[in-house]
Specification:
Layout lengths: L1 E7 L2 E7 L4 H27 L1 H7 L1 E2 L2 E2 L9 H24 L2 H24 L7 H24 L13 E4 L11
Antiparallel strand pairs: 1-2, 2-5, 3-4
Helix pairs in contact: 1-2, 1-3, 1-4, 1-5, 2-3, 3-4, 4-5
Length: 181
């Protein structure tokens, strides 16, 4: 903590500056927000419409799931439930603005994301074109990369501390005194 004094005509102002890295807080919140949003979108899609998820994930004319084996309703719905659970956990870390919860969410994404990425890197479906394969690897790599970044960049303090309001000290004025000499 740093303390600064600033004088003015009536007295002085005392400010306490906390050593809080606001950039780390902002970076963690952005990464948690990205992970939570994509998890909820993917999760809802796979839970509500598993066949649509299987046929057309990730959308935009690409088909990454259907080229990797036959449709399994149970598996597609479970993937959706998993993504919803990760989304809720990540959103809770974002909502409570707790760096420890953020690190735990990041760890969850890292633990899921590394084997998920390795599977996709080592099992290229024959019907998946080069551009789609590359994009699927990038998409799969983003999850553990953001998880690791959250773990490494999360602030040391558990909660974001706001700086206290400044203290204004005013000197009393004497009534009836004249300074004319």
């Amino acid at each position: 903590m740093r303390i600064s004094l600033r004088g003015n005509g009536d007295g002085f102002q005392v400010r306490m500056h906390l050593e809080v890295n606001r950039r780390r807080w902002l970076a963690m919140q952005i990464m948690l927000g990205v992970l939570a949003a994509q998890a909820v979108i993917i999760g809802l899609w796979a839970v509500i419409a598993p066949m649509s998820f299987y046929d057309s994930f990730p959308g935009f004319g690409m088909h990454w799931v259907s080229v990797d084996g036959p449709y399994n309703h149970h598996l597609a719905a479970d993937v959706g439930a998993f993504f919803l659970a990760m989304g809720v956990m990540t959103a809770a870390a974002l909502w409570y603005r707790d760096s420890m919860l953020g690190r735990l969410a990041g760890l969850g994404w890292l633990v899921f994301g590394v084997p998920h990425f390795l599977y996709h890197a080592l099992h290229r479906p024959a019907d998946l074109g080069g551009a789609s394969f590359t994009l699927s690897l990038i998409g799969a790599l983003v999850l553990p990369a953001l998880g690791l970044a959250i773990i490494l960049l999360a602030p040391r303090e558990r909660t974001q501390i706001t700086e206290p309001a400044p203290i204004n000290v005013r000197f009393p004025r004497r009534k009836g005194t004249s300074t004319g000499r």
